[in-house]
Amino acid sequence: MNLLRKLWNNLHLFMALPAIVLFGLFFIYPLAQGIGISLTDSNGMTAPRFIGLQNFVDFFHDARAKKDVYNTVFFAIGSAPLLNLFGFLYALILDRPFKGKGFVRAVVYLPAVISPLIMGYVWYFILQPDRGFLYHLLASLHLGTGGSDWLGNANSALLVLVFINVWQFVGMTMIIYLAGLQSIPKELYEAGEIDGAGYLKSLWYITIPMVVQSIKINVVTNIIGSLSVFEIIVALTDGGPGYSTESLSIYILRMLYGSFTGYSTAVAMILFVMIIIPVFLFMRYINKKEFEM
């Protein structure tokens, strides 16, 4: 009986066991294996040789790698805040009652369900100089087409990529914010009105604190997605012109195909840390702020 009572009292631990096993099998084990490979000169063909931290040292001395870090961080800093800002604004607007609200929501959300690779190729043909849709549209409106090679210009290509990424995935962010907004009890706004709170005060003291879980989800997923960007760049610029739009994800793949398995794995570990640090700092900040709201 004592054994059965102990099993019953610890049943929750056994219920968590499948999740723990899967987490260990598909995250901890690959991570440990990746760390091991990153410390070798593995090329995927011959027996690897342990070289310690040499791959990491080589990365920080590689000018191309530094440029890719800049591109990746620039893309994330441009995409993640804009996705959350416009996603929240869309949600506020489309949470109001008006005719055709469902249709507008569907139109805003639709690009998010299309593969970024396919969407990238669609925009590639839209932005083609001399023969793209946008080129002919500007020409027909007599707005000028000078310097219309937006993807072939190192100064504009990365900005165009940020714009397209925000346009495609703002609907995904909007849907999550909408779910948070629709869970807020109407009584809170009514109480705010009685206390004399205007729209801006209600937004700051009621809406934002009540959608903090949606904020967490959107910020974390947008940080992860922006720092690991791959498909949209491959489809539109393939990292060019030169390496002006190459991200770390593309750099990792090219090093891997170049038989630098150990080095590419080391870069993947660096990218993993680059993603974990801002996510950890944000979660720590938002959890503290939550108690102040």
Automatic annotation (TrEMBL):
The chain crosses the membrane at residues 12-32, 73-94, 106-126, 157-179, 217-236, 256-283. GO terms for cellular component: plasma membrane. InterPro entries: ABC_transporter_permease, MetI-like, MetI-like_sf. The keyword Calcium does not apply. It comes from the Bacteria. GO terms for biological process: transmembrane transport. Gene3D superfamilies: MetI-like (1.10.3720.10). It is a multi-pass membrane protein. It is found in: Cell membrane. The keyword ATP-binding does not apply. Keywords: Cell membrane, Membrane, Transmembrane, Transmembrane helix, Transport. Residues 69-282 form the ABC transmembrane type-1 domain. PANTHER family: ABC TRANSPORTER PERMEASE PROTEIN, INNER MEMBRANE ABC TRANSPORTER PERMEASE PROTEIN YCJO. Belongs to the binding-protein-dependent transport system permease family. This is Sugar ABC transporter permease.
